[in-house]
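Look over this record as teaching material.
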Amino acid sequence: MAADKKKRRRPDSNSDSDSDNRPFKSKLKPDPVILQTLKNLKSACSTAASTSKTLTLTDVGLSSTCREVADLPIDEVQSEIESLALNIAKSILSGQGFSFSVPSRSSANQLYVSELDRIVLKDKSSLRNFGNVSTVRKATITLRILQLVHQLCTSNIHVTKRDLFYTDVKLFQDQSQSDAVLDDVSCIVGCTRSSLNVVAAEKGVVVGRLIFSDNGDMIDCTKMGMGGKAIPPNIDRVGDMQSDALYILLVEKDAAFMRLSEDRFYNRFPCIIVTAKGQPDVATRLFLRKMKMELNLPVLALVDSDPYGLKILSVYGCGSKNMSYDSANLTTPDIKWLGIRPSDLDKYKIPDQCRLPMTEQDIKTGKDLLEEDFVKKNPAWVEELNLMVKTKQKAEIQALSSFGFQYLSQVYLPLKLQEQDWL
């Protein structure tokens, strides 16, 4: 009876295993050929890492005109805050009130340095005076944040940005205000935001050929299921990274991450797969940089074919303007744009119904990106972005599912890797 049922069961028309006529599948070479290509890429990356030096502001003669923060131990952060408090007390006792000299994080105070390949903060500052009606509230919030961070230092504990906001809701009013001042405090103290013991809630996930210790517990990312392992919000917890991967695959969206994870793509073409589920958070950026630096692996990025996909890629690679003061610790150099690129829409015959018209805002964002120095430095990026703006078409990674749910993992990515089709 079971055999009869099995015989009568109709094949699933959506099953990728039955779709031998999927576009470009016939072009795929045997896996060992693709694996050799990846081994060559890893070898070239390791050689470049051993021969190149990580440049600093001093190396390019900008140490006096630009500023950046450092990763400081907790006792130094505490000492710096106490020194600030002492100066404030002296200023008040002398009858002068108090104020903070706060580095400006506005767009006008940002600079892209091609030699460093990242955005840095220039040295312009503004005065946040408690005695001035226009700045009194921000000065009060700044002092309160400093007090709370000092408490964290003395207790040696970590809290989330949300926890910080709820300690004084009436003063902060909105979390965006306490978050912004927290970044200001990092600049004032001269340390990274993670050095303040304030972290963002867990967002990013990792899966694949990676073993690392998380607060002393060894984590094997091949045994984390299709959901992956949440990236620890505190990078200090992470250590002892081990991997036999050939590259890191950085994925923009959770949906693509889940597809690749469930298909165990990391076993077929050994890799570590990471996503921040959209806009990159600090923890994921720190984790990606740590992997890149410790494991000497190339990073290939899979993002949507729209201006925001390229913006996300640039945040990982060159840094965000909002946190340019910490770009030295948050950026991952030499990320390669694997896909989905505007030229892929025609190359892989993406159906018209899966292509989306760009909105006016999309087109404006695309044109603005073309004016950015970090885009101009890469002529191939400029060419792709010009094509996107000209055709006024965009597409998500999921557009590939029109050829089958597993087309991404079984055809598109293997073919991209085989042809070394990255920028």
About this structure: The first strand starts at residue 66 and ends at 67. The radius of gyration is 24 Å. DSSP finds 17 helices and 18 strands in the chain. The CA atoms of residues 97 and 131 lie 7 Å apart.
